[in-house]
Design a protein that fits this description.
With 287 residues, this protein is of the alpha/beta class. The chain has twelve helices and ten strands.
């Protein structure tokens, strides 16, 4: 059931659990997520970066794959299709293609420009029932070639951007994309607490969910985080399972080279990661 992210995240914030944004990269990813959330009766957000959309043949093709599988597989739980770290132009293209939610990441612009562009995206998106995520303070690490240093967001900037009417809001609180280094100091809960207070109960987003310890995830949820993004962990699980299959020579046995067989261990490994994340975030049975 394809919906915007607005209501599912308001419910999550009110009831004290998190909704996973699982980034998708191809058919195996989409199927792994949809089958698992249906089994566990959990809402979910399918994240699509601009690079992943290009890889999958464009925004329209992503929506065609997801909407067809949603219908054919009779998915009954709420599913949002969300543009992740979208550019200004990309946000409008995704809206036109039928995405139910978009992130406009203006964190790299001067604040006044981020504010103005966010207002424009909100106006267009809300006119067609699409939810909007904005960001202040770039998230560390690398995401599709965009490198952030893990800035900590300014609470006053967060208050002003949240007041534009965005439906979900990402603030840098020391989190990074990809693998976390051994010397990572942890999340800045003091900043998160302040951001939650000044953003008028807008559901908050934690980017870079891979590698954050469970106790910090749960504390973040208790302080207003309603959406946690997961991407790298599925990629690592998929690669590891595929490597083991090939190293064991399974691709040389009978028709083991058939992509339906070759990719199956990775698909199952991803399902296991999704199940673990939904359980950790507390969204199982919340659909």
């Amino acid at each position: 059931m394809l919906v915007s992210a607005k209501e599912m995240l308001q419910k999550a914030k009110a009831e004290g659990y998190g909704v996973a944004q699982i980034n998708i990269n191809n058919l195996e990813w989409i199927k792994a997520v949809l089958t698992t959330v249906e089994e566990l009766k959990s809402p979910v957000i399918l994240g699509v970066s601009e690079g992943a959309a290009k890889y999958m043949g464009g925004y329209e093709n992503v929506m065609a794959m997801v909407s067809t599988l949603d219908r054919v597989m009779k998915i009954s739980v709420p599913v949002a299709v969300h543009l992740d770290h979208g550019t200004y132009e990309g946000a409008f293209r995704a809206i036109r293609a039928g995405f139910t939610s978009v992130m406009f990441d203006g964190s790299h612009y001067p604040f006044a420009e981020n504010l103005q562009k966010t207002k424009e995206v909100v106006a267009v998106a809300h006119a067609v029932g699409v939810s909007v995520e904005a960001e202040v303070g770039s998230i560390g690490g690398e995401e599709d070639g965009v490198i952030g240093l893990g800035e900590v967001a300014d609470p006053e900037e967060c208050r002003i951007i949240a007041a534009t009417g965005v439906d979900l809001f990402a603030a840098g609180i020391g989190n990074i994309h990809g693998k976390y280094p051994a010397n990572w100091p942890g999340l800045r809960f003091d900043v998160l607490k302040t951001v939650n207070e000044v953003t008028n109960n807008v559901p908050l987003v934690l980017h870079g969910g891979t590698g954050i310890p469970e106790d910090q995830i749960k504390q973040a949820i208790s302080l207003g985080i309603a959406k946690i993004n997961v991407n790298t962990e599925l990629q690592l699980a998929f690669a590891d399972a595929t490597r083991k299959y090939i190293e064991a020579g399974k691709d040389l046995e009978a028709k083991g080279f058939d992509p339906r067989k070759l990719l199956d261990p990775g698909y199952k490994a991803m399902k296991a990661v999704v199940k673990a994340k939904l359980t950790m975030f507390g969204s199982v049975g919340k659909a």
